[in-house]
Design goal:
The structure holds two protein chains of two kinds. By secondary structure, chain A is of the alpha/beta class. Chain A contains eight helices and ten strands. The longest helix of chain A has 16 residues. The termini of chain A are far apart. In chain B, the strands form four sheets. Chain B has a five-stranded mixed sheet. A four-stranded antiparallel sheet of chain B has the order 1-2-3-4, covered by helices on one side. Chain B has a two-stranded parallel sheet with strand order 10-11. The N and C termini of chain B lie far apart (89 Å). The chains are: A alpha/beta, B alpha+beta. Bound molecules: iron/sulfur cluster.
Chain lengths: 303, 389
């Protein structure tokens, strides 16, 4: 038997913070690839501390629903899961290349495949592109469009900027959008000045965050001048300085994130059968492995 | 016929290594099969006799089938919980701490723990439905088809306060995941960050769940409670005391181990009592160093401070690092009493219950506004003078 544990932050204050976690875990449940699927949280229940004992499977794949390697993936989650042999060096990562390490959870006597975060997986690049498609409702979006991938910035965690730049570069190499830029909230180049960094009239702005919350629903829209007051909402697209800004909200709410969870687990040795195809069917993926675009299913955010 | 050809075949196969389950024994001897129930005994059975004998004790056969084939999972918390639900003897109960009985009955007013039921009694009871209580959940175990009294059990859940409600008046679900939404908000629509807060909303029911679905549903209402209950029963609940948990914290929570010992007791009194949490605090200040506050009678063991308490402890650790001062503020005796009433009303969550016109209650809104108008300065602060700096 094999179990998937999706490890996320959660919130004591905001009931919506865990919505994407539940949604993606449910998608994986639907595929039937795992005997058990559990959500686990730092700030909600089941807590990281308790989750492993709630599964019967001997093989447990833990995938952190976090954007970057850093404090949570390297310290908090392994410690709280009681992975006593853990050492960040075991990931042999340069900050974006963690794949997995196999350890024992000492309280439960189970084999844990501790995976790198979803945010740094190559498949995340597809999710960002998919996000641009769902926000613009243009399956072929790219030509004539600029794409901004937005992160928090280096003051909190230097790997967070690495993850943003990593995907930005990968999308740029695909030559699909006219321009692709990494922007940040707390460092240069800043998302506040988004229009200065693009020549394209249309710019899709995708924040690389797991869940919608304060940053993606208040800070960023106001900083970019999409709206004077986030409570009034904003248009997608919104006119700013002669550009059309297609603001998508947190990429982590994109349905295709379930695919990244599966890939992380598969990279760690999980037997997922044809679950990836099932997910891509379930979520109406625009960026299947064959590269053929199809229609997205979600409308824009923020209204 | 509820004993199937499959059952007979499986039982005959396994008889070689011997079957002993819930009072039902099957063995293969040199002299044919031997069968035993608390009521009957057969020996020297040939194949054809075996079939007849098994039909004569079909309750034992179907009971065996349900537990061994449908539920399975020997030694798991899931199986133990489902057996507890129908008052079957728990196979691996080694603690003897709560004789025959669930820890999950909830409040101290609940009847004494009930003795486990033997198969025949259980089969009678399953026709009616066997009721259990798990925190604020009422769980009924019954036969899927009552007339047939076949082996297959289904489970219903609703809020204990809805026990007498008409099903038609409740919102009925059959997907365990619906429990997530129900467990997220209290009856006033506020977010419940602590799943074991005694504030579960009423008005819903889950009916006809399978055993697996029941366990999954409970997992959404009260995460990890089944696993920890099972560990406690088996005597291997691992408890992390305050100091251990506090010292493990890093980042912004690094400060919580600076919380003074007496403040840990105030915190336990504030957060971990029955009125606030259905878990029974098993953690102490340190191994052998108990906190002088009762851990409560909650049905679920609490094996270490939860994330909510850790987050609150951070605030208190910071606040407790401040020095105390003497202040002088002018108050009448009644106003001093009123401050006490205000704090008490907020702490007990009583402010909503105070009637608009009940100005005799110190926590009445008009009384509070009057006090503020009289005693606050233009900056909205109490007029107080620090005496010792
Ligand atoms: S630490 Fe206290 S409040 Fe938190 S779950 Fe345990 S008993 Fe309840």
């Amino acid at each position: 038997m094999q179990a998937l544990v999706v490890a996320a932050h959660g919130s004591h204050l905001n009931p919506d913070a865990s919505d994407p976690t539940y949604a993606h875990a449910d998608t994986v449940r639907e595929t039937g690839a795992f005997d058990e699927v559990r959500e686990a949280f730092w700030k909600e229940e089941p807590h990281f501390r308790e989750v492993i004992r709630t599964v019967e499977s001997d093989e447990v794949f833990v995938v952190p629903l976090f954007i970057s390697e850093g404090y949570f993936t390297e310290q908090v989650i392994p410690r709280e899961l009681r992975l006593e042999q853990w050492d960040p060096d075991k990931w042999e990562s340069d900050g974006t290349s963690a794949s997995q390490v196999t350890l024992e959870a000492t309280d439960a006597g189970k084999t844990i495949h501790y995976c790198g975060p979803v945010g740094t997986h190559d498949a995340m690049t597809d999710v960002i592109v998919q996000r641009a498609e769902t926000a613009t409702e243009k399956p072929g979006v790219g030509e004539g469009f600029g794409l901004a991938v937005v992160g928090h910035g280096t003051d909190r965690n230097e790997n967070s900027a690495k993850a943003i730049e990593y995907h930005t570069e990968r999308i740029r190499e695909r030559d699909r959008f006219d321009e692709v830029k990494a922007l940040f909230m707390d460092e240069e180049p800043e998302v506040d000045d988004v229009t200065e960094y693009f020549e394209s009239e249309d710019v899709v702005v995708v924040p690389l965050f797991v869940a919608d919350g304060y940053h993606t629903q208040e800070d960023i829209p106001e900083d970019m001048a999409l709206t004077e007051d986030y409570r009034l909402g904003w248009d997608v697209p919104a006119e700013v300085d002669g550009h059309r800004i297609w603001y998508t909200g947190a990429v982590g709410t994109e349905d295709l994130m379930a695919d990244v969870l599966l890939e992380r687990a598969a990279d760690a040795g999980a037997d997922i059968g044809d679950a990836r195809e099932t997910v891509r069917k379930l979520v109406g993926s625009a960026t299947g492995a064959d590269g053929e675009p199809s229609a997205g299913t979600e409308t824009g955010m923020g209204d | 016929m509820t004993v199937t050809a499959d059952d007979i075949e499986t039982l005959a196969e396994r008889a070689a290594s011997g079957i002993a389950f819930d009072g039902f024994r099957v063995a293969e001897t040199d002299d044919g099969y031997a069968l035993e129930t608390p009521e009957n005994e057969w020996t020297g059975l040939e194949d054809a006799d075996l079939e007849r004998a098994l039909e004569a004790c079909e309750e034992y056969v179907t009971n065996w089938r349900y537990w061994q084939e449908t539920v399975g999972g020997a030694g798991t918390a899931r199986r133990a919980f489902l057996r507890w639900c129908e008052r079957a003897p728990l196979e691996d109960d080694r603690t003897g701490a709560s004789p025959g009985g669930p820890v999950g009955s909830g409040d101290s007013n609940s009847p004494a723990p009930e003795e486990p039921l033997a198969v025949a009694d259980r089969y009678d009871a399953l026709g009616e439905g066997i009721d259990r209580r798990w925190g604020q959940l009422a769980i009924t175990t019954r036969f899927l088809d009552v007339d047939d009294r076949d082996y297959e059990r289904v489970y219903d859940i609703w809020h204990v306060d809805d026990a007498d409600a008409d099903l038609a008046a409740l919102e009925v679900h059959d997907d365990p995941r619906a429990a997530r939404e129900i467990a997220t908000y209290d009856p006033d629509g506020r977010y419940r960050p602590l799943k074991t807060a005694p504030t579960l909303a009423t008005g819903w029911a889950f009916t006809g769940l399978t055993g697996d679905e029941l366990v999954e549903t409970i997992g959404f209402f009260y995460p990890a409670t089944i696993a920890n209950w099972h560990r406690e029963r088996r005597g291997n609940l691992d408890v992390d005391h305050w100091l251990e948990t506090a010292q493990r914290q890093t980042g912004i929570y690094d400060v919580v181990d600076e919380l003074p010992r007496e403040a840990v007791a105030w915190m336990a009194e504030a957060c971990c009592v029955d009125s606030q949490c259905l878990r029974r605090r098993e953690w102490e200040y340190d191994e052998g160093d108990d906190i002088d506050v009762d851990g409560g009678d909650g049905p679920f063991p609490c094996r270490e401070p939860c994330s909510l308490v850790i987050a609150a402890a951070r605030t208190w650790a910071i606040l407790e690092s401040e020095d105390e001062h003497a202040y002088r503020l002018e108050l009448t005796t009644s106003e001093l009493n009123q401050l006490e009433e205000l704090i008490d009303a907020v702490a007990e969550g009583r402010t909503d219950e105070i009637r608009e016109a009940d100005v005799t209650d110190g926590a009445n809104r008009y009384r509070a506004r009057y006090l503020r108008a009289k005693r606050f300065d233009e900056n909205g602060a109490l007029e107080a003078t620090k005496l010792d700096d």
